[in-house]
Write a structure and sequence with these properties.
Elements lengths: L2 E2 L5 E5 L1 E2 L1 H17 L14 E7 L5 E10 L3 E7 L21 E5 L10 E2 L1 H15 L4 E9 L7 E9 L2
Antiparallel strand pairs: 1-2, 2-10, 3-4, 4-9, 5-10, 6-7, 6-9, 7-8
Length: 166
């Protein structure tokens, strides 16, 4: 199970990269480039600094509690939720499926290495509550993570804590 349990009334879920799905989306981009074709109208192609991550929900009755994230270097990471139970083998990712607000956290290049990460607290709170709400109707949720300003996936640890509502 992907869940790390704290006290019995909380559940911590770790964002895990979906390597197969990320690779499938990269193949879509290279296929379009190789064939000289354009993306479908409204289609969202994966950029080189992005990857698809997922959360698997073992329980659907969740309340958002808090975020845990660390970035062991400087850079900026954005997390964008994908709104529906997306089936990439049947449909391409469309821009209308991307949720707002996005989660953003960062450390500037001139910040000391031991300085806390910065984030947009209200957006991250709303984003966490939205994830908990969407968890009520699905077992898995996908996310688009973008690594900018020298941030790398290897330097990231990201999870979210929920309270169990039942």
């Amino acid at each position: 199970m992907d869940a790390a349990r704290s006290p019995s009334n909380t559940l911590v879920l770790v964002f895990k990269e979906d390597h197969a799905l990320t690779e499938m989306m990269r193949l879509r981009v290279s296929s379009l480039q190789r064939l000289g074709q354009k993306r479908q109208e409204g289609e969202r192609l994966l950029l080189p600094h992005e990857a698809i991550y997922r959360l698997d929900f073992p329980n659907q009755e969740l309340g958002f509690s808090r975020w845990y994230f660390s970035l062991s270097a400087y850079g900026r990471v954005t997390i964008t939720g994908i709104s529906q139970h997306w089936t990439p083998d049947l449909t391409h990712l469309m821009t209308r499926q991307l949720l707002e607000p996005i989660g953003t956290f960062w450390r500037n290049a001139d910040d000391p290495e031991d300085s806390p990460l910065k984030w947009l607290e209200a957006d991250m709170q709303e984003f966490g509550e939205r994830i908990a709400e969407l968890a009520k109707v699905r077992k898995v949720m996908y996310f688009l993570l973008a690594f900018k300003e020298s941030a790398e996936a290897a330097n990231l640890s990201c999870s979210v804590e929920f309270t169990l509502d039942k």
